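Show me any protein, keeping tokens residue-aligned.
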Amino acid sequence: MGSDIGVSISLAGVIGAAVGFYVGWIDYKILKGMLQALETKNKQAGGDGGVVARYKALFGALVFGVPVIGFPIIGYWAASLLTG
């Protein structure tokens, strides 16, 4: 009845992805805070917020996407390779 599509998910890989997600979430929070600090510093100096304010949506997507999506992928891959 059911069709086997040949996808196997390793437990080690899932654990690696979870650890990668956690590290990515922490990295996201740090990078987000740094961008907000740069924007605030520029505004307090009399500017308009600088490059960070102008490209806020792009930076937000990159800062979120790379760590929160990329780190779990790397974690899964690394854990799967280490365990064989």
Remarks:
- Residues 10 and 52 are 40 Å apart (CA to CA).
